C-alpha cells in the first residue's frame, strides 16, 4: 500500500481575505525550530505507517516557499530516511513572489523538491487585486518560466468565479497557462460558504452581510467551461473534476487522496488519515496555532487537536465518493448492490460509462458529481 506525507507550513506573507486555512503572519518565522518539530512529529507518527510505500511528499500551506531551503532539505531527507525510500514526487507550494528567484528555486531542487506548485490564481490584474493578492500577472509568468527551467513538473492554481472574473478572463487565463511550461493545473471556483467558513474570514463576513457581489451559478459554470476548453486546446486533459494534466503528469500525491490511500499529515493544522481496507481507520487534525503545535511536540506529545475513528463503511463511502471525482472512476465493487440499479439510467443519460469492471463519470457526469455520488452511496 502506498501513502503520502503532507507537511503543512502555516506562515504566509499576508492573510488573503478569502482564505480559511491554518495561516499565521507572525514574525519572525521559527525556521529551524519548526523543522525540528515536524521531524519530531514524524518520529512519533511514523511507526503506524511501517510497511507501506512512501510515494510522495507534499509541502503545502500557508506558503512553504517562505521556509528556507536548508530546512526543507532536512524535512524531505528525514521522511525519505525514515521510510527507506526516495519518494517519486516531492511538491512545494510557492507564491509567485518567492518563486520568481532562480537561485531560490535551484536551492529547493537541491533540497529534493521535483515539483513546484505556483499559486497563480489569475493573470488578470483586476481579478488579482480583488482577491487581495500581492503579485501581478508578469511576476506569475516569470515564476512559471523560471520553474520550468528548474523542475520536471510545474503546477499552477487558478481561481474563477471571483469578483471581476468573466468568461473572457477565464479563457485568457487558461490559454496563457497552457502556453507556459506548466504540466498540471488545478482550477477551483471561489467558494465562500458562510455556513462553514470561520467568522473572521473577511470575504465570508462580507458575503454574510451582502457586501460581496459574486457571479451567479450559470456564469461560474460558463467560466469553468471556458477554462476546460482552453486547457484542453493547450494539451492539458481533465483527469479529475478540477484538475488537468499533460499526459503522464497527473499528481501522485493528490491521487492518493482520491483513491482512498493513507496520508501522514505533519505540522500545524495538518490533517492525516491511516486507513486499512475493510477495517476502517482513523483521521486526525493537528492544532492550528503554530505555538500550540510547537509546545505539544516539544513536550513529546502528538499534536492532535481532534481524532475521529472511521468505521469500515465510512471508509468505503469516502472511497466511492472521492474515486468518482477521477476520470478513471471506481471499481464497480465499490457501488453497493442495492444501488446498482441507479447505474443504467446514468449510463443512458450519458452521465456515466460502465465497462472493464469500473464506473466512470463522463464530463457531464463530473459536473453533477455530488448529486450522482449521493444516488450511489449506501
Ligand atoms: S497565500 Fe494561500 S494559504 Fe496563504 S493566506 Fe493566501 S490563500 Fe491562504
TrEMBL record:
Signal peptide: none annotated. Its cofactor is [4Fe-4S] cluster. The keyword Endoplasmic reticulum does not apply. Keywords: Chaperone, Heme, Iron, Iron-sulfur, Metal-binding, S-adenosyl-L-methionine. Residues 1-237 form the Radical SAM core domain. Belongs to the anaerobic coproporphyrinogen-III oxidase family. HemW subfamily. This is Heme chaperone HemW. It comes from Anaeromyxobacter paludicola.
Amino acid at each position: 500500500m502506498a501513502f503520502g506525507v503532507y507537511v503543512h507550513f502555516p506562515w504566509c506573507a499576508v492573510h488573503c481575505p478569502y482564505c480559511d486555512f491554518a495561516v499565521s503572519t507572525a514574525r519572525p518565522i521559527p525556521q529551524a525550530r519548526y523543522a525540528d518539530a515536524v521531524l519530531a512529529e514524524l518520529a512519533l507518527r511514523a511507526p503506524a505507517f511501517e510497511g507501506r510505500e512512501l510515494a510522495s511528499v507534499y509541502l503545502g500551506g500557508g506558503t512553504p516557499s517562505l521556509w528556507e531551503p536548508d530546512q526543507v532539505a532536512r524535512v524531505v531527507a528525514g521522511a525519505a530516511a525514515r521510510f527507506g525510500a526516495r519518494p517519486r514526487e516531492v511538491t512545494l507550494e510557492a507564491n509567485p513572489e518567492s518563486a520568481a528567484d532562480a537561485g531560490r528555486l535551484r536551492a529547493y531542487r537541491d533540497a529534493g523538491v521535483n515539483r513546484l506548485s505556483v499559486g497563480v490564481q489569475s493573470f488578470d490584474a483586476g481579478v488579482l487585486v480583488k482577491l487581495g493578492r500581492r503579485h501581478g500577472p508578469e511576476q506569475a509568468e516569470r515564476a512559471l518560466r523560471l520553474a520550468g527551467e528548474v523542475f520536471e513538473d510545474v503546477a499552477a492554481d487558478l481561481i474563477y468565479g471571483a469578483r471581476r472574473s468573466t468568461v473572457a478572463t477565464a479563457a485568457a487565463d487558461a490559454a496563457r497557462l497552457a502556453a507556459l511550461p506548466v504540466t498540471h493545473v488545478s482550477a477551483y471556483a471561489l467558494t465562500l460558504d458562510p455556513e462553514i467558513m470561520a467568522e473572521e474570514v473577511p470575504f465570508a463576513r462580507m458575503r454574510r452581510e451582502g457586501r460581496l457581489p459574486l457571479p451567479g451559478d450559470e456564469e461560474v459554470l460558463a467560466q469553468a467551461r471556458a477554462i476546460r476548453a482552453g486547457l484542453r486546446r493547450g494539451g492539458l486533459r481533465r483527469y479529475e473534476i478540477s484538475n488537468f494534466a499533460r499526459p503522464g503528469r497527473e499528481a501522485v500525491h493528490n491521487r492518493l487522496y482520491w483513491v482512498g490511500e493513507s496520508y501522514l499529515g505533519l505540522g500545524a493544522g495538518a490533517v492525516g488519515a491511516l486507513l486499512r481496507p475493510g477495517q476502517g481507520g482513523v483521521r486526525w487534525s493537528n492544532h492550528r496555532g503554530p505555538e500550540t503545535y510547537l509546545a505539544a511536540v516539544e513536550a513529546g506529545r502528538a499534536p492532535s487537536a481532534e481524532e475521529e475513528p472511521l468505521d469500515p463503511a465510512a471508509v468505503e463511502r469516502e472511497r466511492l465518493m472521492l474515486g468518482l471525482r477521477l476520470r478513471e472512476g471506481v471499481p464497480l465493487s465499490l457501488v453497493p448492490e442495492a444501488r446498482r440499479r441507479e447505474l443504467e439510467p446514468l449510463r443512458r443519460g450519458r452521465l456515466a460509462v460502465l465497462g472493464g469492471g469500473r464506473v466512470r463519470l463522463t464530463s457531464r457526469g463530473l459536473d453533477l458529481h455530488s448529486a450522482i455520488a449521493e444516488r450511489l452511496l449506501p
